[in-house]
Amino acid sequence: MSVYTDTISFRTKGNTDVIDITPRLDELLQKSGMREGFVVIHAVGSTGAVTTCEYEPGLVRDFKDIFDKLIPPGHYSHNETWGDANGHSHLRASLVGPSITVTFNNKRLLLGTWQQVVFIDFDTRSRQREVAVQFVGEQ
Amino acid sequence: MSVYTDTISFRTKGNTDVIDITPRLDELLQKSGMREGFVVIHAVGSTGAVTTCEYEPGLVRDFKDIFDKLIPPGHYSHNETWGDANGHSHLRASLVGPSITVTFNNKRLLLGTWQQVVFIDFDTRSRQREVAVQFVGEQ
Amino acid sequence: MSVYTDTISFRTKGNTDVIDITPRLDELLQKSGMREGFVVIHAVGSTGAVTTCEYEPGLVRDFKDIFDKLIPPGHYSHNETWGDANGHSHLRASLVGPSITVTFNNKRLLLGTWQQVVFIDFDTRSRQREVAVQFVGEQ
């Protein structure tokens, strides 16, 4: 077994910006040359999260709406600590979670047809983001 | 180290149907012959999720109730995209998350006594489901 | 590649007690002697969860508040099953999730500057807790 570590970087708009990173993962999987194994995907930073969803514009809007309802922007103790306004961003990111692990076989990620790997930026502003990616498996 | 990939398949009823897959994982762990390592478990499809819980009928009812409260069925933009009615199913699945990873040692999953690995089907109908399972470890 | 399994143990206060376990993970990473790989971290037991956050007192208070709002203590079917009062603890733990996976490279966890790995004890009382930790990688 071998290991291949890389980083996916991109610019986000913030405010529950949902980014489909599946094509980048597919590219890196082919680059790794591995046939069978798994990939660990985790957000670097505490206001972003990684999960899967059907990536289509309607659902992306629904994400914004449901998080605005469940954990709305507003007063949080965190905001007093630093004088910033992203307490809700932190809570949302911790709830969704920073990492997922997806297996692959025959050089193909074992995802559903309508299932993409997404990074969600919950922060309140545009940011340059990094997602750590590690493929572990066999040729 | 070696890798063993398999799939667990089953039929669900949908609507926050909670399925205990721990016995199937235990069987596959014995079949793999591995002593120490970990297993990646991830839902194939974007309206199912994997997590752990104490699997007992009361808590299974509580899951249905809390998700009906937090992310109720109803109007979502996703529903307009496809003309279906499972926007809430997608949001619930992305929030819980598609994957977990559990370690094992001495051929035993390192879970608590009252902790089972469950697949939750949030879709609105009965479906045939697949969970991708990969054991990585040493004999 | 090799594997190193260990356990992190500590006492919690319960009631959404957030424990920063990053320093313990760093110690074990150095002890493992590995350079490149990943660490699986998962909660043993069904009322604790693992995620990442910026570990600072304001945000810790916000965690308690948001979970008291989203999944308040009170009546749950689970409580009738066992005659206990921690139905909300179970639901919160399953929602956040039991496990995360974090990669490392050059003997350093690939976390953000303000991102710590935390265990959250959602149970209603002080408990002795175990988090299973497994490092997999190369020297």
Multimeric organization:
homotrimer
Order of helices and strands of chain A: EEHEEHHHEEEE
Taken as a percent bin, the fraction of beta residues of chain A is: 35-45%
**CATH top-level class of chain A:** Mainly Beta
Largest interface: which pair? Answer: A-B, 36 and 31 residues
CATH-assigned homologous superfamily of chain A: YjbQ-like
Question: Which topology of chain A does CATH recognise?
Answer: Jelly Rolls
Shape of chain A: elongated
The percentage helix of chain A is: 25-40%
Overall tally of structural domains of chain A: 1
Taking the alpha carbons of the first and last residues of chain A, their distance comes to: 8 Å
- The whole-angstrom Rg of chain A is 16 Å
Number of helices of chain A: 4
Number of strands of chain A: 8
Write the layout of secondary structure elements.
3 copies of one chain form a homotrimer.
Chain A: E1 2-12, E2 17-20, H1 22-32, E3 36-43, E4 48-53, H2 57-70, H3 77-82, H4 87-96, E5 99-105, E6 108-109, E7 116-121, E8 127-138
Antiparallel strand pairs in A: 1-8, 2-7, 3-5, 3-8, 4-7, 5-6
Highlighted features:
alpha+beta, 3-stranded antiparallel sheet, 8 strands, Jelly Rolls, 29% helix, elongated, 139 residues, homotrimer
